[in-house]
Amino acid sequence: MDIFEKVVNNMGPLGSYHKIGHHYFSFPKLTGELGPYMNFNGKRMLNWSLNNYLGLANHPEVREADAQASADYGLAYPMGARMMSGNSDLHEEFERQLAEFVGKEDAFLLNYGYQGVMSIIECMVDHRDIIVYDAECHACLIDGIRLHKAKMGAYYKFNHNDMGSLRKNLERATKKVAETGGGILVITEGVFGMSGKVGSLDEIVALKNDFNFRILVDDAHGFGTMGENGRGVHEHLNCIEGIDLYFSTFAKSMAAIGAFVAAPKEIIMFLKYNMRSQTYAKALPMPYVIGGMKRLELIKKHPELREKLWENVRALQDGFRKRGFDIGDTTSPVTPVFLHGEYDVLTATSLIRDLRENMGIFCSIVVYPVVPKGQIMLRIIPTSAHTLEDVEYTMNQFEVVQKRLAEGFYKAQAEQFKSVLA
């Protein structure tokens, strides 16, 4: 079979709906100033889909720093990979500031989060080592695990946040590395981005009393939002020193491009010389470095941004619960709204159209295979830029959505899409 023919005939579980969803449900185009209100399809929308937790994307000091750095350096500087010709004092200063903030000895700037964490995993483990990971780890972590040099039998999955399951898998891994002469790397998240659950980092760290392993934490949604000073979930759970490799992207609270990993100095030096995705890739452009330092400065100097975020989070999540909505066990800003019933993808598309076209609310929708069949998850991300009035309006509209679901309104509306997919 021709490769092109193969992929065109099988667009994948999400791509199979591109005829009714492209540029609307997937690859939508939001325009206007980044913030709680944006334009979609020519209409003004209350936007709950940006991970702009602290509202820094359009902060005047951030915009000024980004613009000035771009004017001073352009987007090309520095040229080349860090190891060859792309290093600078400012890159290393930003690394020092990040390491200090998250409570580690040193840090390494990465070009992208997804690519970066995959490369960390690939770099840290060899054919003798065993990975033990949480069942609900993000796709970037799963793809990194798949790069494991030993492949089959070299990684074990424990039930989500289940310490009993983790213990059993650590016992298995301990027996295995006794044979291979390798080590164990436990991989989990600070905040799980779909459910909003906080990873049990303190309990995992406590298991070091019984087992010999290291921990890699992806805290993309915890950095800047969790903990007394916004340092992350490891601060929130008082286990900073127990986390061996702390990773976060700049794409959430920092509202930027790039990422970093923080660890002991000698481990960071090893990563600098062995991470293929950084050794053979251009350095993070200077405007992102200077802009990143400004963002970090604001996170440290303005706790009121985080306080406003949490005021909105509490109002939103308390309001949903009081109205009988299922938002799971989230204890972070991530707010999933689970709608239960025999709902298919077409019913979900009808629901989203109603939210956007008639209620002016833009939020992300998650369907099978990310959530079980028959379930719809609407994912809402509150930010410090939202208001309590935005929260109240949204909850009132969701009451209408819940009623229409129960009455079968969206299922009836979905029939019109079937001919498109035929």
Structure report:
- It contains 17 helices and 14 strands.
- Helix 6 (113-124) packs parallel to helix 7 (139-146).
- The protein is of the alpha/beta class.
- It is globular and about 60 Å long.
- It has helices at residues 3-9, 12-15, 18-21, 60-73, 89-102, 113-124, 139-146, 163-180, 201-206, 233-236, 265-274, 276-279, 286-301, 303-322, 345-359, 388-407, 409-421, and strands at residues 30-31, 37-40, 43-47, 106-110, 130-134, 155-158, 184-189, 214-218, 245-249, 259-263, 335-343, 361-362, 364-366, 374-380.
- Helix content is 45%, strand content 16%.
- The strands form 3 sheets. The protein has a 7-stranded mixed sheet. The protein has a 4-stranded mixed sheet with strand order 1-2-3-12, with helices on one face.
- The mean pLDDT is 93.
- Helix 10 links the parallel strand 8 (214-218) and strand 9.
Topology:
Layout: H1 3-9, H2 12-15, H3 18-21, E1 30-31, E2 37-40, E3 43-47, H4 60-73, H5 89-102, E4 106-110, H6 113-124, E5 130-134, H7 139-146, E6 155-158, H8 163-180, E7 184-189, H9 201-206, E8 214-218, H10 233-236, E9 245-249, E10 259-263, H11 265-274, H12 276-279, H13 286-301, H14 303-322, E11 335-343, H15 345-359, E12 361-362, E13 364-366, E14 374-380, H16 388-407, H17 409-421
Parallel strand pairs: 3-12, 5-6, 5-7, 7-8, 8-9
Antiparallel strand pairs: 1-2, 2-3, 4-10, 9-10, 11-14, 13-14
List keywords for this structure.
single chain, 422 residues, 4-stranded mixed beta sheet, 16% strand, globular
